[in-house]
Amino acid sequence: FQNDDKCSVANSQVPLNPGDDGTSHGSGLTEQEPPERGNWTGRFDFLLSLLGYSVGLGNVWRFPYLCYNNGGGAFLIPFTIMLVIAGLPLMFMELSFGQYANLGPVAIYKKFCPLFRGLGYGMVIVSAIVMLYYNLIIAWTLFYMFASFNSVLPWQNCEEWSTEQCYSYEEAERCAARNETYFRRQCYTATEAALKNITHQAEQEVRRPPAEEYFLRRVLGLSAGIEETGEIRLPMAMCLLLAWIIVFLCLCKGVQSSGKVVYFTALFPYVVLVILFIRGVSLPGASTGILFYLTPDWHRLANAQVWGDAAVQIFFALSPAWGGLITLASYNKFTNNCYQDALIVAISNILTSFFAGLVIFSVIGFLAHELQVEVKNVVDQGAGLAFIVYPEVVARLPVSPLWSLLFFVMLLTLGLDSQFALMETVTTAILDRFPNLRDYKIWVVLIVAVFGYFGGLIFTTNSGMYWLQLVDKYAANWSVLLIAIVECILISWVYGANRFLRDIQDMIGQKSRLWMFFWTWMWKVITPAALLFILFFNWVEYAPVKYGDYQYPIWADAVGWAIGVFPVCIIIGMGV
């Protein structure tokens, strides 16, 4: 690594101080050099893009559930500790790495360490795979947004897409007001109920709210299993097409265009969260939900599961080792204070997660109050929270289409920011690998978008949800952790943490010895140890993927493992 023609960050650095003759003191920029990569047009372009990439759907639909499930307010302690020892160090390292070299993940490792050039390709492959199904979630939000432009929300009652088990609480309340029994979407008088033993059957019947049936049957058209592919669902395929058109239009000029869009997409979710919070806390039962969310259970801190969940959540929230952080930072000016940016985004991430929990649990408390059940019986995470529980809540509010529209526009903007970074990672990798294509950036983005659309069509079929769960389970899991561990060792031990910190000080100015000591030990010892803990925790807690009660066949698990192993095989193969 000491031999600059073999392995060095500085060797890949773009020209910083052009001489009077127009040449650079670094690598040299001549007329034969390929077109420039470009830069962010303003400091806040980068900061908001980074914030939007790091603050995504997981902050709204996963963190609140983890907090409730792992000791309430006490969960913030392990979450914050893991942020300091694992999340923040990796984010700071990758931002500094990308900014100093001024290159994306594929090109940076080619110059930094040719033996491990596959790390960059591994990062891009992970981002490309996630990009395919992440845009489908954006397509779901678009579908719900269009459905919200109705005077009555379509999931407010049981309609033609419902099964007999669909349980409309509005219909049930109307039946109860007439002293009748509601069973399988019909009202029965006391006499009819007694003759047919309806009352007992109604008590034993599985109750599926309209919002659940709407999502599973109308939106997904879910088949019995992954082996029953079915057909491409045209409405969802059109929404996916619209999602890719939006992404293409926002990224067609690279960071110059996306940097302006993020002023809306990164900040608008906070406006909506504040509005939803004000509305949520005014609802009956909201205080019960918030107390359920915040009440600390200190005994849970002695459980390794809690610390494992905190570590996994913060690692995947800040998204290091996906290539996105390196890509976004590579468009920075050399003197940008990336250390300050990392601190701002890391703190914003944890505060956003906490505040989103208040918003979500205030409305979940209201739903539990309405259904007269305990909060734990209605809480959910992931797609179940965003597309079943929350739609069920807004259907019960006055002016429900407005609240529905606001919520799904917020999900759309949260998702788009992350999708922008994933897409930018892939296109930047192509343009850095083939620099002469930079003059044709629009065509490169268009081709990637077209491939992304056709690659994502499998998720719009009747078995699409099964494929999404499978890919989500394996694509960005332990392979990303392995990439992060190798990256951390390469930079802190092989290249040298002290040497890397001197490079960083060339960009952001001199720092104290204590600052140097802190980050040296973080990168060399504490962060790799934390990453190994997360990796082993993932392996110990491993269970074959399932969706609800559905168990995947063995061949599907094999496909999942193949997807997960592929980036690692690329790294090993290119090294050989």
UniProtKB/TrEMBL annotation:
<feature type="transmembrane region" description="Helical">
    <location>
        <begin position="474"/>
        <end position="495"/>
    </location>
</feature>
<keyword id="KW-0769">Symport</keyword>
<keyword id="KW-0479">Metal-binding</keyword>
<feature type="binding site">
    <location>
        <position position="414"/>
    </location>
    <ligand>
        <name>Na(+)</name>
    </ligand>
</feature>
<feature type="transmembrane region" description="Helical">
    <location>
        <begin position="443"/>
        <end position="468"/>
    </location>
</feature>
<dbReference type="InterPro" id="IPR000175">
    <property type="entry name" value="Na/ntran_symport"/>
</dbReference>
<feature type="binding site">
    <location>
        <position position="59"/>
    </location>
    <ligand>
        <name>Na(+)</name>
    </ligand>
</feature>
<keyword id="KW-1015">Disulfide bond</keyword>
<dbReference type="Pfam" id="PF00209">
    <property type="entry name" value="SNF"/>
</dbReference>
<dbReference type="InterPro" id="IPR037272">
    <property type="entry name" value="SNS_sf"/>
</dbReference>
<feature type="binding site">
    <location>
        <position position="55"/>
    </location>
    <ligand>
        <name>Na(+)</name>
    </ligand>
</feature>
<feature type="region of interest" description="Disordered">
    <location>
        <begin position="1"/>
        <end position="37"/>
    </location>
</feature>
<feature type="binding site">
    <location>
        <position position="418"/>
    </location>
    <ligand>
        <name>Na(+)</name>
    </ligand>
</feature>
<feature type="binding site">
    <location>
        <position position="349"/>
    </location>
    <ligand>
        <name>Na(+)</name>
    </ligand>
</feature>
<feature type="transmembrane region" description="Helical">
    <location>
        <begin position="552"/>
        <end position="574"/>
    </location>
</feature>
<feature type="transmembrane region" description="Helical">
    <location>
        <begin position="261"/>
        <end position="294"/>
    </location>
</feature>
<feature type="transmembrane region" description="Helical">
    <location>
        <begin position="314"/>
        <end position="331"/>
    </location>
</feature>
<keyword id="KW-0812">Transmembrane</keyword>
<keyword id="KW-0472">Membrane</keyword>
<feature type="transmembrane region" description="Helical">
    <location>
        <begin position="44"/>
        <end position="63"/>
    </location>
</feature>
<feature type="transmembrane region" description="Helical">
    <location>
        <begin position="232"/>
        <end position="252"/>
    </location>
</feature>
<feature type="transmembrane region" description="Helical">
    <location>
        <begin position="75"/>
        <end position="97"/>
    </location>
</feature>
<feature type="binding site">
    <location>
        <position position="417"/>
    </location>
    <ligand>
        <name>Na(+)</name>
    </ligand>
</feature>
<keyword id="KW-0813">Transport</keyword>
<feature type="binding site">
    <location>
        <position position="52"/>
    </location>
    <ligand>
        <name>Na(+)</name>
    </ligand>
</feature>
<feature type="transmembrane region" description="Helical">
    <location>
        <begin position="343"/>
        <end position="368"/>
    </location>
</feature>
<protein>
    <recommendedName>
        <fullName>Transporter</fullName>
    </recommendedName>
</protein>
<feature type="transmembrane region" description="Helical">
    <location>
        <begin position="118"/>
        <end position="147"/>
    </location>
</feature>
<comment type="similarity">
    <text>Belongs to the sodium:neurotransmitter symporter (SNF) (TC 2.A.22) family.</text>
</comment>
<keyword id="KW-1133">Transmembrane helix</keyword>
<feature type="disulfide bond">
    <location>
        <begin position="158"/>
        <end position="166"/>
    </location>
</feature>
<dbReference type="GO" id="GO:0015375">
    <property type="term" value="F:glycine:sodium symporter activity"/>
</dbReference>
<feature type="transmembrane region" description="Helical">
    <location>
        <begin position="516"/>
        <end position="540"/>
    </location>
</feature>
<dbReference type="GO" id="GO:0046872">
    <property type="term" value="F:metal ion binding"/>
</dbReference>
<feature type="transmembrane region" description="Helical">
    <location>
        <begin position="402"/>
        <end position="422"/>
    </location>
</feature>
<keyword id="KW-0915">Sodium</keyword>
<dbReference type="GO" id="GO:0005886">
    <property type="term" value="C:plasma membrane"/>
</dbReference>
